[in-house]
Amino acid sequence: MPRRLKPPEAGKYRIICPHCQAEFKHNISKDYTYIKCQKCKENFKVLLTTVRAKRGRDGVYYKEYIIRYVGHSGEGLIEFGDSRHQDLDVRSSDLILLAFVKEDNGKYSDTPSLLINVTINKGIQVQKPPFY
Ligand SMILES: [Zn+2]
Question: Strands 32-36, 43-58: parallel, antiparallel or unpaired by DSSP?
Fold first, then answer.
């Protein structure tokens, strides 16, 4: 029987700014939250969600990940590449926080710059591959 996964509870979560790595706490009560860093004043977007499954596929230039998650607005998935080829420490039922920054075109990237596994209290930098 698959476990019944719930979206993360609303509350204060430890955030790491993807721009300057400053740490602070922020209230999160929904899937996506727009945050202005208290230190460097840069904006970023976070997704706080519960992992259903993670898949990684090794390529030549980068590793490709698909993370399926359970959020407040239902199930979703995020796909991204990481040119650091690391093994993301993410398991089913873990709470994760993904931080996205704006690209040169002014839009938020589809690739997170930073993944924080809230459950094991670990932050991982993600490097978007060129031309991904
Ligand atoms: Zn900052």
Answer: antiparallel
d(CA 59, ligand 1 centre) in Å: 32
| Ligand 1: centre distance to CA 58 (Å) | 31
Helices of type H across 79-131: none
Pair type for strands 11-16 and 23-28: antiparallel
Q: How far is CA 10 from CA 87, 95, 106, 123, 124, in A?
A: 28, 12, 29, 20, 23
The tens digit of pLDDT for each residue in 12-28 reads 999 999 999 999 999 99
| Span from the CA of 101 to the centroid of ligand 1 (angstroms) | 11
pLDDT exceeding 90 applies to what percent of the chain? 92
For ligand 1, the distance from its centroid to the CA atom of residue 49, given in whole angstroms, is 22
Q: How far is the CA of 1 from the centre of ligand 1 (A)?
A: 42
Nearest CA among 129, 98, 103, 128 for reference residue 114: 98
| Cα first-last separation, the chain | 36
pTM, two decimals, is 0.93
Please say whether the beta carbons of 101 and 128 come within 8 A: no
